[in-house]
Amino acid sequence: MGDNLHVPHEETKGIVEDTVDGRLDVYIWDMDETLILLKSLLNGMYAEAFNGLKDAQKGVEIGKMWEKHILDLCDSHFFYEQGLHNFFDQETMKLWDELYDVTDKYTDGWLSSARAFLEQCSSGKKDATSSVAPAVGVLDSPDSNYQQVNVLVTSGSLIPSLVKCLLFRLDGIITHGNVYSSWEVGKVQCFQWIKERFSCSNVRFCVIGDGWEECEAAQAMRWPFVKIDLRPGSSHRFPGLTLRTVGYYFSVVYGSPDAEDDKD
User: Where along the chain is Mg(2+) bound (predicted)?
Assistant: First the structure.
């Protein structure tokens, strides 16, 4: 499969078998400028969207610090499955934590909000402390035969992408086997692999990202595409995006599951 990692067949098979009589929603995420911000910090586009209200130079400095840490970690140590805490001292971990917090503050909570949204997609449950509503057909009952999976398809090369997952605290939500790199093969090919993996009658796919490549790939697969928007006030950014909004995109392509249940 080129430069990508994939979940062991047994794990995928278990997910599909568990949803034979239920439903599986697969959320396919872009990484850069979607779940994390890096390029837009480095080139000033993030600050530019705020029309002078953000210090562009501070954003560039934050981006350069992330870039340095990513490169250093790629060159020195990389053990995705075992995590960072097993290999680095408390001082280094504190430095990374502080940079994460500084970045999250500068971006008005983009990182922590995106991470929280990933967790909501995994559970299908709304956050009781927020206004996020469940997507169409999402069941809160722990007994319901309904599953969700987060998959990451990044255009970057694999190792730096996995390092970003670790540093930006995504590794606890997206397993290493659910990270794909489209660097060599393109996103359409990655999407086709994902469709083959999660092949069951009641599966729904939704792509979330900011770029033209994942948009065109989603169109080719006839999957809904949610375009992330950096501009403040948008409902398609973090914080801002909700499961209710994503549910609308699901229903446009797949129809309302509740309507199908009524027919039965």
Answer: 30, 32, 210
